[in-house]
Design a protein that fits this description.
Largest sheet: 7 strands, antiparallel
CATH architecture of the largest domain: Alpha-Beta Complex
Strand order of the largest sheet: 1-10-9-4-3-2-5
Helix content: 10-25%
Number of domains: 2
CATH topology of the largest domain: Naphthalene 1,2-dioxygenase Alpha Subunit, Chain A, domain 1
Low-confidence stretches: none
Strand content: 25-35%
Structural class: alpha+beta
Shape: globular
Mean pLDDT: 95
Distance between the termini: 28 Å
CATH superfamily of the largest domain: Naphthalene 1,2-dioxygenase Alpha Subunit, Chain A, domain 1
Order of helices and strands: HHEEEEEEEEEEHHEHHEEEEEEEEHH
Number of helices: 8
CATH class of the largest domain: Alpha Beta
Length: 377
């Protein structure tokens, strides 16, 4: 029988019991995560190549909060709350674009690329009206490992301090990190809590059992060498290649180029993942954006090297991700979410112990502790 309150006792934690089911659908937990986790965390919004020229911009939503990131004429990236300072109208609706200025579609207040108010019709006669007092409100922006992140918390710790050593680890496996360009971005609704999606991605226990696409992935890596490592606010899960592989994703490897032949994944608290699949000249991102206690949007981004022709292996990998592995994982997410609502389940038992190795759920436990600490702090 499920508990009536969202509590995870120290005794249960010490005994190896998982975060209780209520944490994956409770409205109050979800409200706390919104303010204590997502309004205080770094969010991956784009690759730096998307913001090279003055006026290039991207927007990103964090629940009802919309953020605008733009490249200035001075080469600096700046982030703002995406809202006109006149009456609160949403300033920019499109996800990406390029503009010399930003003009509100309601009353035509216009803003320069540095966020300063440039024009406000019919305000000349208003006593004491000061354009300088009505610029766009800032948010934090950082570029880390060539990807652009935003944070609503102006006092947030820099990513480099959150993730020491991560940048070097990423560059070990993704040599063309600075030369990437966007190929495709896909938003997929998922009928599951965002933590369910994250859990699924950070354990290898299910690879041999959960479906044909996961079994195909195992055939490309030496699963005995698959490692999952927690580093505080970031984590990695990495698998070495099968050295005798001659094809991947149904396509011959002969003549193909790739970022790495390793299966490499970097995760940054709370919901961003950067990865490379074996033998594909492609770098992927996936971001778990919660939309409700039991719903999320999973954003898949695919990047490759600018000017380099996509190999057939890479094209096949993207199709495989979109049509086989991704849907297989999403079905697991939805099924898991349904089960968490059952009166016959309250908490699980982590599979962690000596000799388990890459099937251990220690990274899931680490993630659960980060979540619990964040909403209890």
């Amino acid at each position: 029988m499920q508990s009536d309150t969202a509590e995870w006792s120290l005794e249960d934690q010490a005994a190896g019991y998982s975060l209780p089911a209520r944490f994956f659908y409770d409205e109050e937990v979800f409200k706390k995560e919104r303010t204590s986790i997502f309004f205080k965390s770094w969010h991956l919004v784009a690759h730096s190549s998307e913001l090279k020229k003055p006026g290039c911009y991207v927007t990103h939503d964090i629940f009802e909060q919309s953020v605008l990131v733009v490249a200035g004429r001075d080469g600096e990236l700046r982030g703002f709350h995406n809202v006109c300072q006149h009456r609160g109208n949403r300033l920019i609706e499109s996800r990406r674009g390029k503009a010399p200025t930003f003009t509100c579609a309601y009353h035509a207040w216009s803003y320069a690329l540095d966020g300063c108010l440039r024009g406000a019709p019919n305000t000349q006669g208003i006593a004491g009206f000061n354009k300088g007092a009505h610029g766009l409100k800032p948010v934090r922006v950082e570029t880390f490992a060539s990807f652009v992140f935003v944070n609503l918390d102006l006092q947030a710790k820099p990513i480099a301090q959150m993730a020491p050593g991560a940048k070097e680890e990423i560059r070990r496996y993704i040599p063309d990190l600075d030369r990437l360009t966007l190929l495709e971005e896909v938003d997929v609704p998922v009928a599951a809590n965002w933590k369910v999606i994250q859990e699924n991605s950070i354990e290898g226990y299910h690879f041999d059992y959960s479906g044909p696409a996961h079994k195909q992935l195992v055939q490309l890596i030496e699963f005995s060498g698959y490692t999952l490592e927690a580093h505080g606010d970031w984590w990695s899960y990495v698998g070495p290649p099968k050295r005798d592989a001659t094809e991947a994703y149904g396509v011959a490897l002969a003549g193909a180029k790739w970022q790495t032949d390793w299966f490499f994944n970097f995760g940054l608290w709370p919901n961003a993942t950067l990865y490379a699949f074996p033998y594909a000249d492609m770098v992927g991102t996936f971001i778990m954006d919660p939309t409700g206690p039991e719903t999320s949007v999973l954003r898949f981004g695919y990047y490759s090297v600018a000017g380099r022709e996509l190999s057939k292996v890479t094209q096949a990998c993207i199709r495989w991700m979109n049509q086989e592995l991704g849907p297989e994982d999403i079905r697991l997410n939805a099924s898991n979410q349904k089960g968490l609502r059952s009166l016959g389940f309250d908490r699980g038992r982590y599979v962690i112990g000596e000799g388990i190795g890459n099937r251990s759920e220690h990274l899931v436990r680490h993630f659960h502790k980060l979540c619990y600490q964040a909403i209890r702090s």
